[in-house]
Write a structure and sequence with these properties.
Blueprint: E1 6-12, H1 19-31, E2 37-44, H2 50-60, E3 66-72, H3 78-88, E4 93-97, H4 108-116, E5 122-126, H5 140-157, E6 168-172, H6 173-182, H7 190-200, E7 205-209, H8 222-240, H9 245-257
Parallel strand pairs: 1-2, 1-4, 2-3, 5-7
Antiparallel strand pairs: 4-6, 5-6
Helix pairs in contact: 1-2, 5-8, 6-9
Length: 270
Protein backbone atom coordinates (compact mmCIF):
# COMPACT_ATOMS: atom_id res chain seq x y z
CA UNK A 1 0.00 0.00 0.00
CA UNK A 2 1.24 3.48 -0.88
CA UNK A 3 2.59 5.37 2.17
CA UNK A 4 0.02 7.91 3.37
CA UNK A 5 0.35 11.56 2.54
CA UNK A 6 -2.12 12.51 5.27
CA UNK A 7 -2.64 10.90 8.68
CA UNK A 8 -5.99 11.85 10.22
CA UNK A 9 -6.03 11.42 14.01
CA UNK A 10 -9.09 11.22 16.23
CA UNK A 11 -8.42 11.32 19.99
CA UNK A 12 -11.42 9.69 21.66
CA UNK A 13 -12.57 9.30 25.25
CA UNK A 14 -15.91 7.56 25.84
CA UNK A 15 -17.02 8.25 22.27
CA UNK A 16 -18.69 4.92 21.45
CA UNK A 17 -22.09 6.51 20.77
CA UNK A 18 -21.08 8.98 18.06
CA UNK A 19 -17.81 7.50 16.81
CA UNK A 20 -19.44 5.40 14.09
CA UNK A 21 -21.10 8.47 12.58
CA UNK A 22 -17.80 10.37 12.69
CA UNK A 23 -15.81 7.56 11.07
CA UNK A 24 -18.41 7.19 8.32
CA UNK A 25 -17.97 10.84 7.38
CA UNK A 26 -14.17 10.77 7.64
CA UNK A 27 -13.68 7.59 5.62
CA UNK A 28 -16.25 8.65 3.06
CA UNK A 29 -14.36 11.89 2.49
CA UNK A 30 -10.84 10.45 2.47
CA UNK A 31 -11.74 7.53 0.21
CA UNK A 32 -12.84 10.08 -2.39
CA UNK A 33 -9.50 11.94 -2.33
CA UNK A 34 -6.71 11.25 -4.87
CA UNK A 35 -3.98 10.88 -2.22
CA UNK A 36 -3.15 8.04 0.15
CA UNK A 37 -4.25 8.53 3.76
CA UNK A 38 -4.69 6.80 7.07
CA UNK A 39 -7.07 7.22 9.99
CA UNK A 40 -5.96 6.60 13.58
CA UNK A 41 -8.41 6.48 16.46
CA UNK A 42 -6.57 7.02 19.76
CA UNK A 43 -8.67 5.58 22.57
CA UNK A 44 -7.67 7.60 25.62
CA UNK A 45 -8.44 5.07 28.36
CA UNK A 46 -12.18 5.02 27.69
CA UNK A 47 -14.53 3.36 30.18
CA UNK A 48 -16.88 2.33 27.39
CA UNK A 49 -16.28 0.30 24.22
CA UNK A 50 -14.83 3.13 22.11
CA UNK A 51 -11.92 0.99 20.89
CA UNK A 52 -14.16 -1.94 19.99
CA UNK A 53 -16.56 0.31 18.08
CA UNK A 54 -13.67 1.74 16.06
CA UNK A 55 -12.16 -1.67 15.33
CA UNK A 56 -15.51 -3.10 14.25
CA UNK A 57 -16.24 -0.12 12.01
CA UNK A 58 -12.84 -0.33 10.36
CA UNK A 59 -13.26 -4.09 9.79
CA UNK A 60 -16.64 -3.54 8.11
CA UNK A 61 -15.56 -0.57 5.98
CA UNK A 62 -12.29 -1.56 4.41
CA UNK A 63 -11.25 0.73 1.57
CA UNK A 64 -8.33 2.72 0.21
CA UNK A 65 -7.72 4.38 3.57
CA UNK A 66 -5.45 2.58 6.02
CA UNK A 67 -6.92 2.37 9.53
CA UNK A 68 -5.60 1.74 13.03
CA UNK A 69 -6.77 1.91 16.62
CA UNK A 70 -4.37 2.87 19.42
CA UNK A 71 -5.67 2.10 22.90
CA UNK A 72 -4.25 2.35 26.41
CA UNK A 73 -5.29 2.62 30.06
CA UNK A 74 -5.83 4.67 32.12
CA UNK A 75 -7.25 7.91 30.75
CA UNK A 76 -4.41 10.43 30.37
CA UNK A 77 -6.02 13.42 28.69
CA UNK A 78 -6.52 14.68 25.16
CA UNK A 79 -3.02 16.14 24.94
CA UNK A 80 -1.44 12.78 25.68
CA UNK A 81 -3.74 11.09 23.15
CA UNK A 82 -2.87 13.61 20.44
CA UNK A 83 0.86 13.16 21.04
CA UNK A 84 0.56 9.38 20.83
CA UNK A 85 -1.25 9.75 17.52
CA UNK A 86 1.25 12.23 16.13
CA UNK A 87 4.19 10.00 17.09
CA UNK A 88 2.51 6.94 15.56
CA UNK A 89 1.42 8.70 12.36
CA UNK A 90 3.07 7.52 9.15
CA UNK A 91 1.92 10.35 6.89
CA UNK A 92 3.95 13.35 5.82
CA UNK A 93 1.19 15.53 7.23
CA UNK A 94 -0.75 14.72 10.39
CA UNK A 95 -4.08 16.31 11.27
CA UNK A 96 -5.94 15.84 14.51
CA UNK A 97 -9.65 16.47 14.84
CA UNK A 98 -12.16 16.36 17.66
CA UNK A 99 -14.21 13.17 17.68
CA UNK A 100 -17.42 15.18 17.28
CA UNK A 101 -16.22 16.76 14.00
CA UNK A 102 -17.08 20.23 15.28
CA UNK A 103 -15.05 21.36 12.29
CA UNK A 104 -16.43 19.40 9.31
CA UNK A 105 -14.05 17.05 7.53
CA UNK A 106 -14.67 19.05 4.34
CA UNK A 107 -12.55 21.85 5.85
CA UNK A 108 -9.46 19.62 5.65
CA UNK A 109 -7.96 21.29 2.54
CA UNK A 110 -7.75 24.59 4.42
CA UNK A 111 -5.20 22.98 6.72
CA UNK A 112 -3.45 20.55 4.41
CA UNK A 113 -2.97 22.58 1.25
CA UNK A 114 -0.73 25.30 2.82
CA UNK A 115 1.53 22.53 4.14
CA UNK A 116 1.67 20.78 0.80
CA UNK A 117 2.48 24.05 -0.93
CA UNK A 118 5.57 24.32 1.27
CA UNK A 119 4.63 27.71 2.72
CA UNK A 120 3.82 26.59 6.29
CA UNK A 121 4.81 23.92 8.80
CA UNK A 122 1.80 24.12 11.14
CA UNK A 123 -1.73 25.19 10.19
CA UNK A 124 -4.46 25.33 12.80
CA UNK A 125 -8.15 26.05 12.62
CA UNK A 126 -9.55 29.19 14.21
CA UNK A 127 -13.04 30.19 15.26
CA UNK A 128 -11.97 33.74 16.12
CA UNK A 129 -10.76 35.17 12.81
CA UNK A 130 -14.11 34.86 11.02
CA UNK A 131 -16.94 34.32 13.47
CA UNK A 132 -19.47 34.21 10.64
CA UNK A 133 -18.21 30.67 10.02
CA UNK A 134 -19.55 29.52 13.41
CA UNK A 135 -22.89 27.80 12.91
CA UNK A 136 -23.80 26.69 16.45
CA UNK A 137 -22.13 28.70 19.22
CA UNK A 138 -20.94 27.35 22.56
CA UNK A 139 -22.94 28.19 25.69
CA UNK A 140 -22.28 31.79 26.70
CA UNK A 141 -20.18 30.95 29.78
CA UNK A 142 -17.89 28.57 27.89
CA UNK A 143 -17.45 31.06 25.07
CA UNK A 144 -16.51 33.86 27.48
CA UNK A 145 -14.13 31.65 29.47
CA UNK A 146 -12.46 30.68 26.19
CA UNK A 147 -11.92 34.34 25.33
CA UNK A 148 -10.50 35.00 28.78
CA UNK A 149 -8.16 32.03 28.45
CA UNK A 150 -6.95 33.27 25.08
CA UNK A 151 -6.21 36.72 26.47
CA UNK A 152 -4.19 35.26 29.34
CA UNK A 153 -2.48 32.86 26.93
CA UNK A 154 -1.32 35.72 24.71
CA UNK A 155 0.06 37.61 27.70
CA UNK A 156 1.74 34.53 29.17
CA UNK A 157 3.35 33.17 26.00
CA UNK A 158 3.65 36.05 23.54
CA UNK A 159 1.84 34.01 20.90
CA UNK A 160 0.06 36.35 18.46
CA UNK A 161 -2.93 34.07 17.81
CA UNK A 162 -6.61 34.48 18.59
CA UNK A 163 -7.76 30.86 18.97
CA UNK A 164 -5.36 28.14 20.07
CA UNK A 165 -8.07 25.74 21.30
CA UNK A 166 -9.95 24.77 18.14
CA UNK A 167 -9.56 21.00 17.82
CA UNK A 168 -8.46 20.96 14.20
CA UNK A 169 -4.69 21.25 13.60
CA UNK A 170 -2.20 20.02 11.01
CA UNK A 171 1.55 19.43 11.30
CA UNK A 172 4.35 18.77 8.84
CA UNK A 173 5.78 15.83 10.72
CA UNK A 174 9.31 15.93 9.34
CA UNK A 175 9.96 19.18 11.20
CA UNK A 176 7.48 18.93 14.09
CA UNK A 177 8.44 15.60 15.68
CA UNK A 178 10.94 17.15 18.15
CA UNK A 179 8.19 19.52 19.28
CA UNK A 180 5.78 16.63 19.83
CA UNK A 181 8.38 14.58 21.67
CA UNK A 182 9.19 17.45 24.04
CA UNK A 183 5.60 18.37 24.91
CA UNK A 184 4.26 17.19 28.27
CA UNK A 185 0.92 18.92 28.92
CA UNK A 186 -1.94 16.43 28.84
CA UNK A 187 -5.06 18.49 29.33
CA UNK A 188 -6.49 21.84 28.23
CA UNK A 189 -3.15 23.57 27.69
CA UNK A 190 -1.63 21.03 25.31
CA UNK A 191 -2.57 22.98 22.17
CA UNK A 192 -0.81 26.07 23.48
CA UNK A 193 2.31 24.08 24.30
CA UNK A 194 2.57 22.58 20.81
CA UNK A 195 2.03 25.94 19.11
CA UNK A 196 4.37 27.72 21.52
CA UNK A 197 7.23 25.31 20.84
CA UNK A 198 6.69 25.46 17.08
CA UNK A 199 6.61 29.26 17.21
CA UNK A 200 9.71 29.51 19.42
CA UNK A 201 11.56 27.17 17.07
CA UNK A 202 10.91 29.52 14.17
CA UNK A 203 8.51 27.28 12.28
CA UNK A 204 5.97 28.84 9.97
CA UNK A 205 2.51 28.87 11.56
CA UNK A 206 -0.82 29.82 10.01
CA UNK A 207 -4.04 30.47 11.94
CA UNK A 208 -6.76 29.54 9.46
CA UNK A 209 -10.48 30.42 9.74
CA UNK A 210 -12.65 27.28 9.57
CA UNK A 211 -16.30 26.38 9.87
CA UNK A 212 -17.23 25.19 13.35
CA UNK A 213 -20.31 24.04 15.24
CA UNK A 214 -20.61 23.33 18.94
CA UNK A 215 -21.59 19.70 19.49
CA UNK A 216 -23.65 18.38 22.37
CA UNK A 217 -21.72 16.15 24.76
CA UNK A 218 -18.42 18.01 24.57
CA UNK A 219 -15.86 16.84 27.13
CA UNK A 220 -14.65 20.44 27.64
CA UNK A 221 -16.17 21.99 30.75
CA UNK A 222 -15.78 25.31 32.53
CA UNK A 223 -13.66 23.59 35.21
CA UNK A 224 -11.39 21.93 32.65
CA UNK A 225 -10.91 25.35 31.08
CA UNK A 226 -9.82 26.71 34.44
CA UNK A 227 -7.25 23.90 34.59
CA UNK A 228 -5.75 25.38 31.46
CA UNK A 229 -4.53 28.40 33.43
CA UNK A 230 -2.52 26.07 35.67
CA UNK A 231 -0.99 24.45 32.61
CA UNK A 232 -0.02 27.86 31.26
CA UNK A 233 1.96 28.39 34.46
CA UNK A 234 3.63 25.01 33.95
CA UNK A 235 4.53 25.98 30.40
CA UNK A 236 6.09 29.27 31.49
CA UNK A 237 8.11 27.58 34.24
CA UNK A 238 9.39 24.84 31.95
CA UNK A 239 10.35 27.36 29.27
CA UNK A 240 12.14 29.59 31.79
CA UNK A 241 14.14 26.65 33.11
CA UNK A 242 15.27 25.61 29.63
CA UNK A 243 13.44 22.28 29.51
CA UNK A 244 12.45 22.85 25.88
CA UNK A 245 15.76 24.22 24.60
CA UNK A 246 17.07 20.98 23.11
CA UNK A 247 13.79 20.31 21.33
CA UNK A 248 13.87 23.81 19.85
CA UNK A 249 17.41 23.22 18.62
CA UNK A 250 16.46 19.90 17.03
CA UNK A 251 13.38 21.43 15.42
CA UNK A 252 15.45 24.19 13.81
CA UNK A 253 17.86 21.59 12.43
CA UNK A 254 14.97 19.49 11.09
CA UNK A 255 13.42 22.54 9.43
CA UNK A 256 16.71 23.49 7.80
CA UNK A 257 17.29 19.99 6.43
CA UNK A 258 13.75 18.88 5.57
CA UNK A 259 13.10 17.90 1.98
CA UNK A 260 10.02 19.24 0.20
CA UNK A 261 6.88 17.19 0.69
CA UNK A 262 6.53 14.43 -1.90
CA UNK A 263 3.30 15.31 -3.64
CA UNK A 264 1.52 12.85 -5.86
CA UNK A 265 -1.77 14.75 -5.70
CA UNK A 266 -3.12 17.68 -3.78
CA UNK A 267 -6.56 17.72 -2.09
CA UNK A 268 -9.26 19.34 -4.12
CA UNK A 269 -10.99 22.45 -2.83
CA UNK A 270 -10.00 24.75 0.01
Amino acid sequence: MQPPLVSFLIPAYNESVRLGHTLRQVLGYLNAQPYASEVLVVDDGSADDTAQVAEAFFADHAGRVATRVLSYQPNRGKGYAVRQGLLAAQGQVAVFSDADLSTPIEELPKLVNPLLAGTYDVVFGSRALDRSLIGVHQPWLREQSGRAFNLVMRLATGLPYWDTQCGFKAFRLAVCRPVVEAAVLDRFGFDVELLYLAYRAGLRLLEQPVRWNDAAGSKVSFLSGLGGFSELRQLRRRAARGYYDEALRLTRIAAANAAPLALSSQPAGG
